[in-house]
């Protein structure tokens, strides 16, 4: 299995809602990532988990809260988002320190 | 700050034409990857180049890594409409191999029938 699976595919939420994005991989990768991507721009790193511990937080606002329940799962909890947070949210995985990322198909998030 | 500068940013061509996308830096990279991303999907890894001067071919796509490992190019021969998408180069600096992956700004390719 060489896939990274993200759910949901699309999400529309109001600024007062709480929602979660989910990501799963079964490639045995020990590093997992959340990226944010605006249209036609490169992905921007948000968080990195290595061996289920948060290793990098790119100064992301606290309204985004990551969680890594186990080595295969990665969640991103969303609360009180702003319209400017609307974007494609990508999950990726790699071997620890690996140079190649395997991306999921993303969650297209719209904040109204 | 290590940067990867990609050019051109936008490219619109007719089916059957050839094209080259460039990815340049003033820093040395331990490896570079090329990804292709279709609208509404995540980036898909096309290739990794590791050795200076390396050339890799993937059907009609040819990837080169510069001798000094500071630049890379992607050449597409006889482009097809299915080649349309956002092309991204990415890599980690040779001097900060535990650091985050650096992405170029991307090249938006449109191949018209």
Structural overview:
The complex is a heterodimer of chains A (112) and B (113). Chain A is 0% helix and 57% strand. Chain A has 112 residues and is mostly beta strands. In chain A, the strands form two sheets. In chain A, strands 2, 4, 5, 6, 9, 10 and 11 form a seven-stranded mixed beta sheet that branches. In chain A, a hairpin with a 6-residue loop joins β4 and β5 (44-50). Chain B has 113 residues and is an all-beta fold. In chain B, strands 2, 4, 5, 9, 10 and 11 form a six-stranded mixed beta sheet that branches. In chain B, strands 1-3-8-7-6 form a five-stranded antiparallel beta sheet, with no helix packed on it. Chains A and B meet through β9 and β10 of A and β4, β5 and β9 of B.
Could you give a short description of this structure?
The complex is a heterodimer of chains A (112) and B (113). By secondary structure, chain A is mainly β. Chain A has strands at residues 4-7, 10-13, 18-25, 31-37, 44-50, 53-57, 64-70, 73-79, 87-94, 102-103, 107-111.
The total of beta strands of chain A comes to 11
Element string of chain A (H = helix, E = strand): EEEEEEEEEEE
Q: β content of chain A, as a range?
A: over 45%
Query: Strand pairing plus helix content of chain A: what structural class?
Result: mainly beta
**End-to-end gap of chain B:** 40 Å
Helical content of chain B stands at: under 10%
Mean pLDDT of chain B: 93
Oligomer: heterodimer
Q: How many whole angstroms does the radius of gyration of chain B measure?
A: 14 Å
Q: What structural category do the secondary elements of chain B indicate?
A: mainly beta
Total helices of chain B: the number is 0
Largest sheet of chain A: 7 strands, mixed
Query: In sequence order, what are the helices and strands of chain B, one letter per element?
Result: EEEEEEEEEEE
- Principal-axis shape of chain A: globular
Strand content bin of chain B: over 45%
Largest interface: A-B, 23 and 25 residues
């Amino acid at each position: 299995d060489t896939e990274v699976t993200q759910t949901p595919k699309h999400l529309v939420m109001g600024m007062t809602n709480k929602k979660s994005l989910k990501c799963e991989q079964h490639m045995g990768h020990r590093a997992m990532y959340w990226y944010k991507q605006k249209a036609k721009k490169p992905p921007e790193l948000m968080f990195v988990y290595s061996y289920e511990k948060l290793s990098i937080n790119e100064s992301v606002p606290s309204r985004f809260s990551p969680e890594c329940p186990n080595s295969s799962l990665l969640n991103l909890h969303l609360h009180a988002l702003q319209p400017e947070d609307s974007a494609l949210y990508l999950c990726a995985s790699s071997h620890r320190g690996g140079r190649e990322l395997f991306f999921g198909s993303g969650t297209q998030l719209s904040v109204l | 700050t290590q940067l990867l500068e990609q050019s051109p940013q936008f490219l619109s061509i007719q089916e059957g034409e050839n094209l080259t996308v460039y990815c340049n830096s003033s820093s040395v990279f331990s490896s570079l990857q090329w990804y292709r991303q279709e609208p509404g999907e995540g980036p898909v890894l096309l290739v990794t180049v590791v050795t200076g001067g390396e050339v890799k071919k993937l059907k009609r796509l040819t990837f080169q890594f510069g001798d000094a490992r500071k630049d890379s190019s992607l050449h597409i021969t006889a482009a097809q409409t299915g080649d349309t998408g956002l092309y991204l180069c990415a890599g980690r600096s040779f001097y900060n191999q535990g650091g985050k992956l650096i992405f170029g700004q991307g090249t938006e390719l449109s191949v018209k029938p």
